[in-house]
Amino acid sequence: MQTIKKVSFMGSSQHDVALSVSGLNKSYGDFKVIKDLELEIARGSIHGIVGLNGSGKTTTLECLLGLKEYNSGKVSLLGNAPADLHRAKGKIVAIFDTPSLPPNLSLRHCLQHASLLCDKPVRTPQQAEALLGLEAFSDFKIKHLSLGNKRRASIAHALLGQPELILLDEPFNGLDAGGVDDVLALISKLNQQEGTTFLLSSHQLPYLEQICSHIAVLHHGAIAVNDSISNLLENKEQSVLVRCKDKVALLTALEGMNQVQYLRTDDDGLHHITIGSKTSAELNKALVEKQLPIDELIVQRASVASMFRNITSGDSE
Amino acid sequence: MNQYLLALLQALKSEFFISIRSFSSKLILLAPALLVLLRYSLVKISESGEQIRDSISGSPSFEDAIAINAWGYFVDGLGTGITMLGLVLIAMAAYSFSYERDTGSLRHLLIRRFSRMQLIIAKLLHLHLLAALSILLLLATAYFASGLFWEFAAVSEDGFELISEQEIREEIALGLSLALVPIPAAIAFGLFISVASHSATQAVSTSLGISIAIDVFKSMLGDYALYIYASYLPSLLDQSYLQDVSRLVRGYSDVLIDERAQQLNMLVPLPSLLLFLAAALLLVRKRNL
Asked: Got the DSSP string for A161-226?
């Protein structure tokens, strides 16, 4: 597994912004999919958007890319409105959750065709194939490639030019563990060496946490949280999961403990408890002193995944 | 403007890159000519059978006198080929945009290089160029194949020349031009359906369904049919002038095309083309892709 280096948040002057969204609204009939969405992505950052199924991630990307009309709002990608992305001449590219390539072309022809879409191709189709490990599949028609290789082909398709902003929708779908590592390493390399900005929409939180400098959580069509990962995790209270047969006794024991708060009991019978700045050892000691038998005590590390679960289950941090 | 034209040229290049590697373009290019060859072969086999029958019975028919003139077969071949070309072009135009939308490949073109309007115009030009190539191939095939099987000659009766070869050529040129004028409108109609429909299957079935329905019902429309571009396209139930030319060069008829019908034939398709193109360009701007 390769080490992925995250980039730090850059300045906030206007020309340092790769993508900005302000007051974006999109409805399907009476159903509001996106509600007053606000988002700003700095040049050179790797920004992740996470959300549950149906939270509006793909619709948001489609609105940003000018593929779907939106009801109101202001969107700018490298200074271009969604309907005018073609004016950026290949500086903005997108990779979709379904491989959106001509199915009857061979991989090589498909990449040659993509070269026509670049103002100044920086890679030949052969180099793009080599970059993604697709040399053996040059003559295969796109429709005959496996899902993982179709996704690699989509990425190769995007990398013939020198894009400044890449939007990826569910980039890890269909990839095996090695493939995911390769894609993460490639994103990191492009970001560090060429300064490419990325917007990744995914529900694969561990991967996003590994690669992204920033995370935005999309919940019910609005951005619930948007910050750098370090900021998101900095002030996060530590929590523990406690398995204890006597819930009433546990709650009684927790009463009066400073900074300790019972949150909920999950389907597995584990009690979720936040402990503020206390350590799990201190909590364990306090419960033992109150002669409460504890079957299991699990420390929950602060992670984007736990933060996301708390947001989407209705709890706030 | 220069940038716009360059992008349009690039879009056309992109269309041709995919088209020369696709089966559908080969179908547009070759199908009319191959159909004509098939038609001539079947007619020749049928005529050979009839000649054997007549020589056995010893009673040469009236058909023998005119059957050897290749001009009639040449015009029949053009009619058959253009009928095929019209249908294939409508289907291909309907398929072009909708299929790329179905596969999602359209998205890359729009995000990276071309505006929606440039894409539609590039598709329109691409289909016109394919149609032009197909017609040239059809003309060459029909001319050489009919010349090979039969003989080009003036229409004569009892040694008296009824219609000279020069007059025949002029009538064929008129019939051909009248038959070709509606083709751009047919392409634009297919493109409009392509943009308006929800899938490639729906686009192709709708465009062909409407075209065949017009063909079937145009005779019931009376004079109103003269204001529909499709009435002038050689079709399965042919009312185009090319069919009259076929009879004329065989000496069956000396009825020439009605001047009003000829004027409408030249005038109606152009506004139809502009109408369908404008509708397609307007719709594509608002279309979710």
From this structure: S--SEEEEESTTTT--HHHHHHHHHHHHHHHHHH--EEEEE-S-HHHHHHH-SEEEEEETTEEEEE
Q: Does the pTM of the predicted model rise above 0.80? A: yes
Angle at CA of residue A130, ends A128 and A134, nearest 5°: 95
A50: number of CA atoms within 13 Å, CB side?
Answer: 24
For chain A, which domains are there? 14-232 (3.40.50.300), 237-301 (3.30.70)
User: Which is nearest to B78 in space by CA: B39, B27, B24?
Assistant: B39
A24 in contact with B at a CB cutoff of 8 Å? Answer: no
Number of structural domains chain B divides into: 1
Among A residues 39-78, those touching chain B with beta carbons less than 8 Å apart: 62, 65-69
Which DSSP helix (H) or strand (E) runs through B172?
helix B165-180
Cα torsion A247, A248, A254, A260: sign: positive
Query: ipTM surpassing 0.90, yes or no?
Result: no
Closest chain B residue by Cα to residue A86: B113
Contact assignment for B103 to A103 by CB distance below 8 Å: yes
Strands A46-50 and A197-201, how do they pair?
Answer: parallel
Print the domain residue range for B51. Answer: 2-286
- Taking only the tens of pLDDT, chain B with its 289 residues reads 688 888 899 999 999 999 999 888 888 899 999 999 999 999 989 888 887 887 787 765 555 555 578 898 999 999 999 999 999 999 999 999 999 999 999 999 999 889 999 999 999 999 999 999 999 999 999 999 999 988 888 887 777 777 888 888 998 999 899 999 999 999 999 999 999 999 999 999 999 999 989 888 887 888 888 888 888 888 877 667 777 787 777 777 666 677 888 888 888 899 999 999 999 999 999 888 8
Q: How many A/B residue pairs have CB atoms within 8 Å? A: 81
List Cβ neighbours of B271 (8 Å cut-off, separation of 6 or more).
none
Return the residue in A93, A113, A115, A118 with the most chain B beta carbons within 10 A, the one to mutate for interface testing: A113
Contact between chains at A86 and B22 (C-beta distance less than 8 A): no
Report the residue of chain A nearest B287, measured CA to CA. Answer: A68
CA-based nearest residue in chain B for residue A115: B14
Q: Where would I find the H helices in B58-104? A: 63-67, 70-103
